[in-house]
């Protein structure tokens, strides 16, 4: 198993036509009794588990590509590939496959892929007829060659035979020689035919042909042929771009000539696929799948070769972080790292893990702190792209680095603050960079991707760090643009109406909208930290200033922020809203909107509809008490009448509950007599029970008499424990300024204090005991408030 010749990577082609790495192991070909045939087995080198078990079927088409690849399809849309570490191992397995299928190992394909619909059509073709007869490679026969190449594309078997013919006669190099001759003669007709021929050969989708066409000797002539599209009046100048405009920059000299050649080849082939070739039609979309695979494996090889060159990467990061490095040089280094990270996206998860860990060990994050703070726009943009790759790969790695940074007095040097400042200072009128950075920040502060271990919780530590060192930087533009004008004559004492410095600048409004989107995300996902921050900074009041903005999208962002807060149905938030009278700017915006039926109108009404449907009593009472007169004229929806109805229902319910506890003297005497009768009925319960009830009676009756005296004298009643509970004649719960304390603030209380403990010692109703316990619990939870009468 230690033989490197048999060491392979197993790949499968996914739905997006991208190769997925299934693991690395060692391949063997053995007879498997269960499958009843010789099969390819790949066992993982890590634990020996079976990565692949594939029977070599006589009818399966196997292809050998690039000397170290074997590719085949096992079922519809299920393609497999083995990538060998060494060519010798590939050749060995290829011989086994050809031996089972009785094919010539010298060929790069084991058999012709014949569609079922074509089987009968080609039944009479002799087995020895492997090649399509090509016309002589001459200028006068170019039209005939072009017609032949175009005609075979619809037939898989003829495509295979043409590919074999082109390879066996070195036909490609002869055609490219004719191209140079046509260009010298300015033979446009011949050049147009060559365009059709080369395009058709690419659509044959054969790796062996690509190896020839994309070699250093041929690739520029192939590009030249593709310049002469017959549909164009003037030919394109792709070769001029590739040789003169596109410059290969070596930030650090690459000494490996094979690596250098592979980079050049990959760039040019990618250019052919993306720029030169037209977008394939529905019928042609699979014609270039091998070309995509060719580029993919080239990129994997480039990244692997660079990663293995320790001196190269070490030198890159040393110069990147060196203060003496010139800005132009640092710009090139950053662009190189960006391209390097982009190439790494072709790697499979385990390889990408190793790649980014290598970058982290080399100091990629400290380097980003330096370059993201530079004035050069291109450098900052490239650094942002690198940062996005890192955050996408591992948010935890970035968070760990940030929390390990030395806590200097100046918070501006922290990486996250550098990112926030770059977001705030984005000079793009459309804030493209700011939008990207906002998304990255949201990923970093998302608790869903935070890890929890036995010793520590990443969520707790990082959020505590973020709110302490970074939150003030994020909210600074919001607080600066929503400052109160304290000297305004329009502001009346005790009024919450403000004269704000509301941003009219579109770019500023967009920035504030992004910040609000992030804060709204925090409200949904950070319960404790954001709640504390909102209360300490009175943040919701500042945000609601933006309801006055002329930019409707910004007003909607402010409203959405409040809607998320109310959606939590947290009484702590509700009391904060009521105390600050924070519905006023929302209702003013609704009234100022007038009869316009727009998104702002609908969003505000939905806010009140939510409060009504969820029956948030404290908010309903506050809204009806303070704003119903202004809202009762809105009748095109029933939301506000529904709020009033809810309010009246709650008021009636509280009155009924209040009356239930009020007993006159006669009812108290009747209850007392009933209690004595019940006591007589229970004499046969035994001496122990009788003694206990006598004690209860003595205790309760004493309390009852004390309560009656207290009621007659207007004194405070005694509680169940015999202790005096002072109930003030005017509780703060019913004062207009403290409407948040109770949802029944408008219920008229009797002049005589309600004596809860007068019930003790009277009729022992079970439901009265439950209600009494509920009342006691509410008193214990809120000793400073009047006992709530609601259930």
Automatic annotation (TrEMBL):
Keywords: Coiled coil. GO terms for cellular component: nucleoplasm; protein phosphatase 4 complex. Residues 1-104 form the WH1 domain. InterPro entries: ARM-like (IPR011989), ARM-type_fold (IPR016024), EVH1_PP4R3 (IPR055236), P4R3-like_central_dom (IPR006887), PH-like_dom_sf (IPR011993), PP4R3-like (IPR051137), WH1/EVH1_dom (IPR000697). Pfam families: EVH1_PP4R3, PP4R3. The keyword Coiled coil applies. One of its GO terms (molecular function) is protein phosphatase activator activity. The keyword Coiled coil applies. Residues 673-687, 765-780 have a biased composition (Acidic residues). GO terms for biological process: DNA damage response. It comes from the Eukaryota. Residues 673-695, 713-743, 761-791 are annotated as: Disordered. PANTHER family: ATP SYNTHASE GAMMA-RELATED (PTHR23318), SERINE_THREONINE-PROTEIN PHOSPHATASE 4 REGULATORY SUBUNIT 3B (PTHR23318:SF18). Belongs to the SMEK family. This is Serine/threonine-protein phosphatase 4 regulatory subunit 3.
């Amino acid at each position: 198993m230690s033989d490197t010749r048999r060491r392979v990577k197993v790949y499968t082609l996914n739905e997006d036509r991208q190769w997925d790495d299934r693991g690395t192991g060692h391949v063997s070909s053995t007879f498997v009794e269960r499958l009843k045939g010789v099969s390819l087995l790949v066992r993982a080198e890590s634990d020996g588990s079976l990565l692949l078990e594939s029977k070599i079927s006589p009818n399966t088409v196997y292809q050998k590509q690039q000397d170290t690849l074997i590719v085949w399809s096992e079922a519809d849309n299920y393609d497999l590939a083995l990538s060998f570490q060494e060519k010798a191992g590939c050749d060995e397995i290829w011989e086994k496959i050809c031996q089972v299928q009785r094919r010539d190992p010298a060929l790069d394909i084991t058999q012709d892929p014949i569609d079922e619909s074509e089987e009968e059509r080609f039944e009479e073709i002799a087995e020895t007829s492997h090649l399509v007869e090509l016309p002589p490679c001459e200028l006068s026969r170019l039209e005939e060659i072009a017609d032949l190449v175009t005609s075979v594309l619809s037939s898989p078997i003829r495509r295979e035979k043409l590919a074999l013919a082109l390879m066996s006669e070195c036909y490609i190099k002869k055609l490219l020689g004719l191209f140079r001759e046509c260009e010298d003669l300015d033979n446009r007709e011949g050049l147009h035919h060559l365009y059709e021929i080369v395009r058709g050969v690419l659509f044959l989708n054969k790796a062996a042909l690509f190896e020839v066409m994309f070699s250093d000797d041929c690739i520029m002539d192939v590009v030249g042929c593709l310049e002469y599209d017959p549909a164009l009046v003037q030919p394109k100048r792709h070769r001029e771009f590739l040789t003169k405009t596109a410059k290969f920059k070596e930030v650090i000299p690459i000494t490996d000539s094979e690596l250098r050649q592979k980079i050049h080849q990959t760039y040019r082939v990618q250019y052919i696929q993306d720029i030169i070739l037209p977008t394939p039609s529905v019928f042609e979309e699979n014609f270039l799948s091998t070309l995509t695979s060719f580029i993919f494996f080239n990129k994997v090889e480039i990244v692997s070769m660079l990663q293995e060159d320790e001196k190269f990467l070490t030198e890159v990061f040393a110069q990147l972080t060196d203060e003496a490095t010139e800005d132009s040089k640092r710009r090139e280094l950053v662009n190189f790292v960006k391209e390097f990270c982009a190439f790494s996206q072709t790697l499979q998860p385990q390889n990408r893990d190793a790649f980014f860990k290598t970058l982290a060990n080399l100091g990629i994050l400290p380097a980003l702190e330096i370059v993201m703070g530079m004035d050069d726009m291109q450098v900052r943009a490239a650094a942002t792209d690198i940062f996005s790759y890192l955050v996408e790969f591992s948010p935890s790695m970035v968070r760990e680095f940030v929390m390990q940074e030395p806590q200097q007095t100046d918070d501006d040097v922290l990486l996250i603050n550098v990112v926030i400042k770059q977001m705030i200072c984005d000079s793009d009128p459309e804030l493209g960079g700011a939008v990207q950075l906002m998304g990255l920040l949201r990923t970093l502060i998302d608790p869903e991707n935070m890890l929890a271990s036995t010793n520590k919780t990443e969520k707790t530590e990082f959020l505590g760090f973020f709110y302490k060192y970074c939150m003030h930087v994020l909210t600074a533009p919001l607080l600066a643009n929503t400052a109160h004008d304290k000297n305004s004559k329009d502001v009346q004492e005790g009024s919450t109406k403000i004269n704000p410095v509301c941003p009219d600048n579109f770019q500023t409004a967009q920035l504030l909208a992004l910040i609000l989107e992030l804060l709204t995300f925090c409200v949904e996902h950070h319960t404790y930290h954001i709640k504390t921050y909102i209360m300490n900074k009175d943040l919701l009041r500042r945000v609601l200033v933006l309801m006055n903005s002329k930019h409707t999208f910004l007003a909607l962002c402010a409203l959405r922020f409040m809607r998320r807060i109310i959606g939590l149905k947290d009484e702590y938030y509700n009391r904060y809203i009521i105390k600050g009278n924070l519905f006023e700017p929302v209702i003013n915006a609704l009234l100022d909107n007038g009869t316009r039926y727009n998104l702002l109108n609908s969003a505000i009404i939905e806010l009140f509809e939510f409060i009504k449907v969820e029956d948030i009593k404290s908010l309903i009472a506050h809204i009806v008490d303070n704003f119903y007169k202004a809202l009762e004229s809105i009748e095109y929806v029933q939301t506000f009448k529904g709020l009033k109805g809810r309010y009246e229902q709650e008021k009636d319910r509280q009155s009924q509950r209040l009356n239930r506890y009020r007993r006159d003297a006669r009812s108290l005497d009747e209850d007392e007599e009933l209690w004595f009768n019940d006591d007589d009925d229970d004499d046969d319960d035994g001496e122990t029970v009788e003694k206990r009830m006598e004690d209860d009676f003595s205790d309760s009756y004493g309390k009852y008499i004390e309560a009656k005296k207290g009621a007659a004298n207007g004194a405070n009643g005694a509680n169940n424990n015999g202790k005096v509970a002072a109930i003030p004649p005017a509780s703060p719960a019913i004062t207009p300024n403290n409407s948040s304390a109770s949802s029944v603030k408008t219920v008229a209380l009797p002049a005589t204090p309600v004596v809860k403990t007068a019930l003790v010692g009277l009729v022992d109703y079970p439901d009265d005991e439950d209600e009494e316990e509920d009342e006691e619990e509410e008193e214990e939870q809120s000793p400073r408030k009047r006992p709530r009468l609601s259930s």
